[in-house]
Write a structure and sequence with these properties.
By secondary structure, the protein is of the alpha/beta class. Helix content is 50%, strand content 13%. The strands form two sheets. Strands 3-2-1-4-6-5 form a six-stranded mixed β-sheet, sandwiched between helices. Strands 7-10-9-8 form a four-stranded antiparallel β-sheet. Strand 8 and strand 9 form a beta hairpin. The protein starts with 5 loop residues before the first helix and ends in a 10-residue tail after the last strand.
């Protein structure tokens, strides 16, 4: 008797690897929209979880952005239950406007997934991002002039979240669904050119493949993996440097900072700004450069204003970051 279809086998193998190391009897949830990627992922989890001594369940997020979304979400949940997944929950969210429609939907989705996973005491939540998604992410961030941390793309694992399919092509997940008689749902938002990711998917990436060959997606994914290794090493260095530079009041020794490579110093300054209360997503390179000037190009300039009402200033060889209204200790004392 023959084995499963090659596409099914590839997806199952990827999911099997992602389940390694989880405690016996633990609950693992698949986030599923009903699209080919997440549906193939959920089907693979339903197959692999019991064989690994785990429980497989699923979460369906209803963003409420399209007519009939509630009915669609219930239909997806019913299909997941028929695969043998339990529990299966539909999570209804309200999408805001911060950061644009894509970012707002993503924020609402992850908040709902995180809350449900914690409530159910799930050991892991599997996400259906594929090789194609990773390539698109790298291109988008490259166009924005992002650094190595951003160019590292989506991590295979981050906290509860695991992305088993980052090395699996989107066409493979469609093949896996077809081989198992699963009819995926095609989100109409995935064809709307007003979204930057859709334009990258439909225009930019195909143009690169045509110009440079079919290995572009894999090359972009390799670039992400290499950038992640570099970023993790720099982050570890910066964490140690932060400890070495920090004083009892939380200020940073300018001489220690000045002796660091710019890539490490920038990470130390960013971490200090966020620790002082600046929103992580609002701290841009222009803010880091202004703080860096207090360290490397000091000529008595005034305090640097940062997002979130945070201020950075230099006094007596120390760099102090604090909310502008807070009373600061005299560094001379």
């Amino acid at each position: 008797m023959g084995g499963p279809h090659p596409a099914v086998a590839e997806v199952r193998s990827a999911v099997r690897a992602a389940l390694t190391g989880l405690r016996g009897g633990a609950l693992v949830l698949a986030a599923c929209s009903g699209g080919a990627d997440s549906l193939a992922l959920a089907a693979a989890l339903a197959f692999e979880a019991p064989r690994a001594g785990l429980r497989g369940g699923a979460l369906v997020v209803d963003h409420g952005l399209q007519p009939g979304s509630a009915q669609h979400s219930r239909s997806v949940a019913s299909r997941l239950e028929s695969l043998g997944l339990a529990p299966v929950r539909v999570l209804t969210v309200r999408v805001g406007t911060d950061g644009g429609p894509e970012a707002a939907a993503r924020s609402a989705r992850y908040a709902a997934l995180g809350h449900a996973a914690a409530e159910l005491d799930a050991a892991a939540v599997l996400l259906g991002h594929t090789l194609d998604d990773q390539a698109e992410t790298v291109l988008l961030r490259l166009a924005r002039g992002s650094g190595s941390r951003s160019l590292s793309g989506m991590a295979p694992a981050s906290g509860r979240y695991r992305r088993p399919l980052l090395a699996v092509a989107r066409e493979t997940t469609r093949g896996a669904c077809a081989a198992q008689g699963l009819a995926p749902w095609d989100d109409p938002h995935n064809d709307e050119p007003r979204f930057a990711r859709v334009r990258v998917r439909q225009e930019a990436l195909p143009a690169l493949v045509e110009a440079l060959g079919p290995g572009v997606r894999e090359a972009l994914a390799r670039t992400a993996a290499l950038c992640r290794e570099d970023a993790e090493a720099l982050d570890e260095w910066a964490a140690a440097a932060s400890v070495a530079a920090a004083g009892p009041d939380g200020s940073l020794d300018v001489d220690v900072l000045a002796g660091l490579p710019a890539a490490v110093r920038g990470r130390v300054l960013r971490a200090a700004a966020v620790a002082a209360g600046a929103p992580a997503g609002a701290v841009g390179q222009v803010h880091i450069q202004a703080l860096d000037a207090l360290v490397t190009r000091w000529h008595g300039q005034q305090a640097v204003a940062l997002p979130g009402g945070v201020s950075g200033e230099r006094a007596c060889g120390r760099l102090l970051l604090h909310r502008a209204h807070e009373q600061q200790p005299d560094p001379k004392e």
